[in-house]
Specification:
With 618 residues, this protein is of the alpha/beta class. The chain is built from 32 helices and eight strands. The protein has four domains: 97 residues, 2-Layer Sandwich (Double Stranded RNA Binding Domain), CATH 3.30.160; 165 residues, Alpha Horseshoe (Serine Threonine Protein Phosphatase 5, Tetratricopeptide repeat), CATH 1.25.40.10; 91 residues; 171 residues, Alpha Horseshoe (Serine Threonine Protein Phosphatase 5, Tetratricopeptide repeat), CATH 1.25.40. It is 64% helix and 6% strand. Helix 10 packs parallel to helix 12 and helix 21 runs antiparallel to helix 22.
C-alpha cells in the first residue's frame, strides 16, 4: 500500500498496471496497452517489485502525449505521487518517467538472505544488480552494453554482475573465458541454490550439459521459489531433452509470479521448437498478457511467420517502431532479426540485406553473426551462390582458431551442404581435415556427442566425395561409426534416439540408398522439430525417389520453414523449387506456378548454373 505523502518515500509492495490515456498526433489506439503497462512495468523493475495487469497492487495511471518530436509520459500512483519523463521515443519517455517516480517510492526492505542472493555487499548493491538484470532481460535498458559495463564497475565482486556482463557479451568473446573464471571464483558467495545454478550454467558453457542439468536440478530442489533459479532451470531442462519437466517448472513460475516468468517464456519459445501449437499459442498469450509491448518481440513475430501470417508480422514490427524498439543498442536487435525473417519469407532479399549489413557493425559477436547470416541468406535467395560462398569463407576465416571457433565450424558445415546439394566440387582436403578436427573437439569428453551427429553425417559425405570410386564404401564406414555412437549415447530415450537417427539421413542416402533413407525418416518420427527441419529436404528427395509421393510432399513442405531461412536458406529454396516440379509432373500447374513463379524475378542475377543445379538435384 502507499503511505500518505510526506518526507519519506511512499512504500509500495506491488503494482497494478493498465492501458495509458493517449493524447497527440501519435496517439494510436493499438499502443495504449503497451505504453500503459510498459511504463508501469518499468517502474516495478526500478523498485524491485512485481506487477500485474488489472490485478492486485497499487494502481499506476499513465498519460502519454505523443507528437512527432517526441513523447511525454506522466505517471501517478494511488493519486499520491506523480512524475513525468520525456524522450525521443515512447520507450525512452517510459523509462525516464519510471526512473523519476521511483525516487519518490520505496519497496519493502530486503532481508539479509535476499541481499546475499545477489552476491551484494548491501541492499543498495542488491537492488542495483537485480534492476540491471531485469532491465537487460526485459529489453528495458537503453543500452545493454552500457548497463552491463556500469554494473561490473559498481559491483565487481558480485557473481551475478559478471553474469550480466557475460549475457550481453561485454568486451567480446575474448573476455568470455575470463568472465567464466571470475564467476566460478565468486559463486561461493551466493546462497547454495544460486551457487549450484551458476555452476551448472558454467558447466553447460563448457558443453558439459549433463552435469549442468544435474546441478540445475539440485538448485531448484533447494530453492524452488527463487524465480531466478526456476526460470533458468526451466530453460535448461527444456533445451536438454527434459522438456515436460521444464515446462512444468515454467508453468508453476508463471502461476506464482507472472512478471518474473517473462524471460523464461520467451526463451522457451525461441530456444525450443514446440511440438504443440496450443502450448505455443498459450505462451505467446502469456507474454502479451504480462507485457503487451512483447507483441513486437521476435518470438511473437516468429509465431506469425511460421503461420504464414506475414501481414500480422508486419503489424507487430510497426508496433515496435511506434514504441521506439529499433536499433542495435539493446535487445531490440532481435526485432531487427525478426524484420529480416519477414523480408526473407516475403522473398525480399534486398530489404533483408539492408538489415544484415547494419547488424554486421554490431560489436557483440552473436549479433554480428546474425548480420552475416542474413547477408548470406539474401545472396542465396537470389541464386548468387558465389557471392554467398565468398561471404561464408570470410566468416570461417574470421572465427577459425578463435574463441568462437564453433561459429566457423557451423558455417563450414553449411558450405559442405550447399556444395553437395548444388553438385559443386567438394571442399578442399585441408578444409575437410580442419572440420574433422573441429568436430572431434566439439564432441569433447563425449558427454554431448549427440550434438555433433548432423555434422558428422555431412562431413562423412564430404569425405566420400573426395574419392568417388570408393564413395559408397567410405560413406558406409562413416555411417557405421555414427550408428555405434548413437546406440551408445541415446541412453534409452526414444526422442533422443530418433533425433540422432534423423540427423544421419543425408549420409544414409549416400551409403544405403533412397529406400533405406525413406524408411528411416518414417520410422523415426519422434525426432525433435529442429532435426526434422534440418533433414526434411533430403527426406523429401529420398521419398520421391522411392515413389512415396504423399510423404515426399509433406517433407518438402516441412523443409520450407521460413524461420530457418536465415541459416538454412538453400534447403528452403530447393524444397520450394522441387515441390513445384513435383506438382508440375502431376499436372497441378496452378499449384506449381504459385510456388516457383516468384523465382523468375528473384533469380535475374543468379549464377548461370543455379537453376539447372536445382533441376538436377535428386
Amino acid at each position: 500500500s502507499a503511505q500518505a505523502e510526506g518526507t519519506a518515500p511512499l512504500l509500495v509492495r506491488s503494482l497494478a498496471c493498465k492501458a495509458a490515456t493517449l493524447k497527440g498526433a501519435g496517439a494510436l489506439p493499438e499502443i495504449a496497452d503497451a505504453i500503459g503497462v510498459g511504463s508501469c512495468a518499468r517502474l516495478a523493475v526500478e523498485l524491485g517489485i512485481d506487477w500485474s495487469v488489472n490485478g492486485p497492487g497499487e494502481r499506476v495511471d499513465v498519460e502519454a502525449t505523443l507528437e512527432g518530436g517526441g513523447a511525454v509520459i506522466e505517471l501517478s500512483i494511488a493519486g499520491a505521487a506523480r512524475a513525468s519523463g520525456t524522450g525521443e521515443t515512447p520507450r525512452e519517455a517510459m523509462s525516464d518517467a519510471a526512473s523519476a517516480l521511483a525516487k519518490k517510492l520505496a519497496a519493502p526492505p530486503m532481508s539479509p538472505a535476499e541481499i546475499a542472493a545477489w552476491g551484494a555487499k548491501d541492499e543498495t548493491s542488491a537492488r542495483r544488480i537485480e534492476r540491471a538484470l531485469r532491465q537487460v532481460e526485459l529489453d528495458f535498458a537503453k543500452d545493454d552494453l552500457a548497463a552491463a559495463r556500469s554494473i561490473v564497475e559498481t559491483d565487481p565482486d558480485s557473481a551475478l554482475a559478471v553474469y550480466i556482463a557475460e549475457s550481453v557479451e561485454l568486451g567480446g568473446p575474448e573476455k568470455s573465458i575470463e568472465r567464466a573464471a571470475r564467476m566460478a571464483e565468486l559463486a561461493g558467495s551466493l546462497p547454495p541454490g544460486r551457487q549450484k545454478l551458476l555452476r551448472g550454467l558454467l558447466a553447460s558453457k563448457k558443453r558439459e550439459h549433463i552435469e549442468g542439468l544435474r546441478l540445475a536440478r539440485q538448485a531448484y530442489a533447494e530453492a524452488p521459489d527463487d524465480a531466478w533459479i526456476a526460470s533458468r532451470y526451466a530453460i535448461f531442462a527444456i533445451r536438454m531433452g527434459a522438456a515436460e519437466e521444464g515446462f512444468a517448472v515454467l508453468e508453476r513460475l508463471h502461476a506464482r509470479s507472472p512478471s518474473r516468468s517473462i524471460w523464461a517464456l520467451y526463451q522457451a519459445y525461441m530456444g525450443y521448437p514446440l511440438r504443440e501449437r496450443d502450448r505455443e499459442r498459450k505462451y505467446m498469450d502469456h507474454l502479451r498478457g504480462i507485457l503487451p509491448e512483447s507483441a513486437a518481440w521476435s518470438a511473437n513475430i516468429r509465431h506469425d511467420v511460421l503461420a504464414g501470417a506475414i501481414d500480422d508480422a508486419r503489424k507487430r514490427i510497426a508496433l515496435g517502431l511506434n514504441l521506439g524498439s529499433t536499433g542495435t543498442r539493446n535487445a531490440s536487435t532481435y526485432a531487427e532479426q525478426a524484420r529480416a525473417w519477414i523480408e526473407l519469407s516475403a522473398f525480399e532479399p534486398k530489404a533483408a540485406r539492408e538489415i544484415g549489413v547494419k547488424l554486421l557493425a554490431e560489436p557483440r559477436a552473436s549479433f554480428a553473426q546474425m548480420g552475416a547470416d542474413i547477408l548470406i541468406a539474401s545472396y542465396l535467395l537470389e541464386g548468387r551462390i558465389d557471392d554467398a560462398t565468398s561471404a561464408q569463407a570470410r566468416e570461417i576465416e574470421r572465427y577459425k582458431d578463435q574463441p568462437l571457433e564453433h561459429r566457423a565450424l557451423d558455417v563450414a558445415i553449411v558450405d559442405l551442404r550447399q556444395r553437395r546439394l548444388l553438385g559443386r566440387p567438394p571442399a578442399p582436403r585441408d578444409r575437410i581435415a580442419w572440420i574433422e578436427a573441429a568436430v572431434k573437439a566439439r564432441e569433447g569428453s563425449g558427454k554431448n556427442k549427440g550434438l555433433a551427429v548432423g555434422y558428422r553425417a555431412e562431413l562423412g559425405i564430404a569425405k566420400a566425395a573426395l574419392d568417388p570410386k570408393k564413395a559408397k564404401t567410405i560413406a558406409e564406414r562413416e555411417l557405421a561409426e555414427i550408428e555405434a555412437h548413437i546406440n551408445a549415447d541415446s541412453t534409452g530415450n526414444p526422442d533422443l534416439l530418433d533425433t540422432m537417427q534423423v540427423k544421419t539421413l543425408p549420409l544414409l542416402r549416400v551409403a544405403r540408398g533412397d529406400e533405406a533413407a525413406a524408411k528411416s525418416w518414417l520410422e523415426h518420427d519422434r525426432a525433435e522439430h529442429g532435426a526434422r527441419w534440418f533433414a526434411a529436404l533430403d527426406a523429401a528427395l529420398a521419398l520421391e525417389a522411392a515413389g512415396n509421393i504423399e510423404e515426399a510432399e509433406k517433407a518438402y513442405l516441412l523443409a520450407q520453414n521460413p524461420t530457418t531461412m536465415e541459416f538454412w536458406t538453400l534447403p528452403v529454396i530447393a524444397a520450394r523449387f522441387k515441390l513445384a516440379e513435383l506438382y508440375r509432373s502431376q499436372g497441378k500447374l496452378e499449384a506449381a506456378t504459385k510456388l516457383d513463379g516468384v523465382f523468375d524475378q528473384l533469380w535475374k542475377g543468379a549464377d548461370p548454373d543455379f537453376r539447372k543445379a536445382l533441376l538436377d538435384l535428386r
